[in-house]
Design brief:
Blueprint lengths: L1 E5 L4 H12 L3 E6 L7 H11 L8 E4 L5 H11 L3 E4 L6 H6 L1 H21 L4 E7 L23 H20 L3 E6 L2 E2 L8 H11 L2 E5 L5 E2 L2 E2 H13 L4 E6 L5 E2 H12 L4 E5 L8 E2 L4 H4 L9 H15 L3
Parallel strand pairs: 1-2, 1-4, 2-3, 4-5, 5-6, 6-11, 7-10, 8-13, 9-14
Antiparallel strand pairs: 9-12
The structure holds nicotinamide-adenine-dinucleotide.
Length: 318
């Protein structure tokens, strides 16, 4: 099966590509290698993390905002399925540059849906986000909860994806599944996310910013669990679906930090700060819908953080 993955040099994209190749699929990776975080990490995911897979995937450097570029890739490759992960992915940075978030996350998304219809793609899976739940106070967050009150341009762009996907499913019969990812972590992870920031600061003895006195809670989700759930979605044709994908244990930020300290072997210096605009105090996933398709998360933070810190230590020679 040929599966086009946008954001293929990203954290989730590269890990999903690897698992797809392990079972014999051919990923077609599209990425613009932008500098939202160090592009060297993106290049290394391709040249080091995927080094044993040379010849089993193809890589196109380009931008999903460029419809002509996408048309050339689709025409040449004729992918049967699409996994759209390319996006500007930072909640806080979306408040600084909301136009960029609308351009990439909404206009780029429409470009891909247009290609999927034109080239008769069989299944279209895309990254939504737990941030669509905004300040929802009912926990756990279920797909049936109202999500009409996003609190960042990023969250609004992901909610827009779900609305626009519905149009394409309804009008053109394109099966679409939006995955609401809950805080993903693991080796080769993103440098702008808490685990990475806390780990590097702890290694280097710098203070870490702990928002809301550490009273944030999350369903941290290990990358391998995200990958297996994403593959279940790719394998399942649903006329229109939106599904949560998150770990099954709610963890406080403080517990998360404790485990990092144990793995690094050093106490973190903590700077307690108030909650930030756009941040959500608690995100807890109701994952029954994806479970019904046979998926379940299996990695606890004790193991997952250890795997991350081991990777970090080697990659950055910490
Ligand atoms: N990691 C998480 O915790 C999390 C949680 C919820 C949702 N998501 C979503 O999952 C998807 C993947 O996230 P990730 O953590 O792997 O992020 P990532 O930033 O590592 O991956 C995204 C990739 O998309 C590429 N990209 C960005 N804009 C592009 C453009 N205009 N054209 C082509 N490529 C472009 C980037 O270069 C990057 O490699 C994103 O859509 C993100 O919003 C992630």
């Amino acid at each position: 099966m040929k599966i086009l993955i946008t954001g293929g040099a990203g954290f989730i994209g590269s890990a999903t590509a690897k698992a797809l190749m392990d079972r014999g699929d051919t990923p077609i990776l599209v990425d613009n290698f932008n500098d939202y975080y160090d592009p060297k990490l993106k290049r290394d995911r391709i040249s080091k993390f995927l080094k044993d897979y040379k010849g089993k995937f193809r890589l196109y450097k380009g931008d999903i905002r460029d419809a002509k570029f996408l048309d050339r890739v689709f025409k040449k490759e004729r992918p049967q399925k699409v996994l759209n992960l390319a996006a500007m992915a930072g909640v806080r940075s979306s408040l600084l540059d909301p136009r960029l978030y609308a351009d990439v996350n909404v206009m780029g998304f429409i470009n891909l849906l247009e290609m999927a219809v034109k080239y008769k793609v069989k299944n279209f899976v895309y990254a939504s986000s737990s941030s669509v739940y905004g300040n929802n106070t009912k926990v756990p967050f279920a797909e049936t909860d109202p999500v009409d009150t996003p609190i960042s341009p990023y969250a609004a762009s992901k909610k827009a994806n779900e609305l626009i996907a519905h149009v394409y499913s309804h009008i053109y019969g394109l099966p679409t599944t939006g995955l609401r990812y809950f805080t993903v972590y693991g080796p080769w992870g993103r440098p702008d996310m808490a685990l990475f920031l806390f780990t590097s600061a702890t290694f280097e003895g710098r203070p870490i910013d702990v928002y809301n006195k550490g009273k944030m809670s999350r369903n941290f989700t290990y990358i391998d669990d995200i990958v297996s759930g994403t593959i279940v979605a790719l394998d399942t044709l649903q006329p229109y679906a939106v599904m949560n994908i998150g770990g099954d244990k709610e963890e406080t930020l403080m517990r998360f930090i404790e485990v990092i300290e144990e793995c690094v072997g050093k106490k973190a210096k903590k700077r307690m700060l108030p909650i930030q605009p756009g941040d959500v105090p608690s995100t807890v996933a109701d994952i029954r819908k994806l479970r019904k398709l046979g998926w379940k998360p299996t990695t606890r933070i004790e193991q997952g953080i250890k795997n991350f810190v081991d990777w970090y230590r080697t990659y950055y020679k910490a």
